[in-house]
């Protein structure tokens, strides 16, 4: 049995690169999950602390939902990045690209929904009560 040299197999020299991208993708994905979990724990803790201090229910609840939504939104950004890197690291087939597109589409929809939940407007809409600066020609 002969051992294969790195130059003898076209895929061998890039094996370390694919493995590295796979691990980077896993780390970013784990970071996204950790951000969501940690954000949820912090949001719950702050919510309970504000209620224990006699905070008004409506404002406290709104602040809780906003904090939780921001944690989810940030976590989703990490997860989308991990999916993109993960797709590059595996065999680039049309099926994998379609799956990536679907995942990004769903997560983008979730991100827009959370943005509306947090700010009460679409990301491209101007802030209410604030006029956009005049643009010079």
Keywords:
3 helices, disordered N terminus
Average pLDDT works out at 80
- N- and C-termini, Cα separation: 74 Å
Number of helices: 3
Q: Profile the largest sheet.
A: none
How many beta strands in the DSSP annotation? 0
Q: Classify the secondary structure makeup into a structural class.
A: mainly alpha
How does this model look, in words?
The protein is mainly α and 137 residues long. It has a domain at 37-119. Helix content is 73%, strand content 0%. It has three helices and no strands. The chain has helices at residues 12-52, 57-89, 94-119. It starts with 11 loop residues before the first helix and ends in an 18-residue tail after the last helix. Mean pLDDT is 80; it is low at 1-12.
List the helices and strands and how they pair.
Layout lengths: L11 H41 L4 H33 L4 H26 L18
Helix pairs in contact: 1-2, 2-3
Short description:
This protein has 3 helices and no strands.
């Amino acid at each position: 049995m002969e051992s294969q040299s790195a130059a003898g197999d076209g895929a061998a020299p890039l094996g370390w690169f694919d493995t590295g991208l796979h691990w980077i993708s896993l780390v970013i994905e784990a970071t996204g999950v950790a951000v969501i979990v940690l954000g949820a724990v912090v949001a719950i803790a702050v919510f309970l602390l504000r209620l224990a201090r006699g905070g008004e229910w409506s404002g406290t609840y709104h602040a809780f939902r906003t904090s939780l939504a921001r944690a989810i939104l940030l976590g989703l950004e990490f997860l989308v990045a991990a999916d993109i890197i993960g797709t590059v690291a595996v065999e680039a087939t049309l099926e994998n690209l379609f799956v990536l597109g679907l995942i990004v589409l769903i997560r983008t929809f979730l991100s827009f929904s959370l943005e509306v939940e947090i700010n009460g407007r679409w990301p491209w809409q101007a802030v209410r009560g604030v006029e956009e600066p005049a643009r010079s020609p």
